[in-house]
Specification:
alpha/beta, 9 helices, 27% helix
Amino acid sequence: MKKRFLALALAAMTAFSMAACGSSASSETSSDAAADTSTDASASTDTASSDTSTDASASSSGRTLDEIKADGKIIMVTNAEFEPFEYKDGDDIVGIDVDIAKAIADELGVELEISDIAFASCIPALQAGKADFIAAGMSITEERKKNVDFTDNYFNASQAIIVPVDSDIASRTDLNGKTVGVQTGTTGDSYCTNEDGSSDISVGEVKRYEKAVDAAQDVISGRIDAEVIDNFVADKLVEKNPDKIKKLDEALTEEQYAMALPKGSELTAKFNEILKSLQDSGKLDEIESKYLSAE
């Protein structure tokens, strides 16, 4: 699949300039990471727990730009287990989403602070006011739109299938009746669980993992038959284990990544303005080239 950024929405927006100053990114591990993300599908009845929240603060529109500037920092929540979009390099959290978030923070003139938690906890954390935005390789879905506001999309993605190199699974329909691993709360989780009846396959058992790499290890060990995960993450996993796993050519879905903000947030328009500027200047292409190998 061609690895490229989609053009951001070209709708005209009122432009105004802001003085940019250098910012540094700090990372911290949130206690929210302790949220239960069981590796067994039977341990959870919510196939997309990152999409819903019962927190009373869900209606909050989040902090204003003035409040963020007064604080001197903007807080991003993510799950740093999603290479090349966000992952750990030593003690640092790096990746495509991190670099984009840093560019946004620089434009706003504030420091970027990163909170690393379970993916399924990202939307509840945003709704609870523990972060200002989500950047986590998050696909735009109608269900998530009920709980967050998305920026313009900035990346084209898809769901891929990883299997052992000697597997007889050759297409999506071969997943019927198989045991498939997914990352909890992702679109791959929703697709394989198929509670809304939109999927055209019937997986035998879905096993959920907090980390995509753990599911890949279970594919390698033979504990599960396949893993469904985002295409670029699948490429990285196969790249590290080329003699053990492979990615099927067939994609399950076509998706678009965007950043998520609280419903009604005044920051959404500003994020879109900055993202468009980064796209027009070629900065987004530079970030893509930094983390993605050319075909």
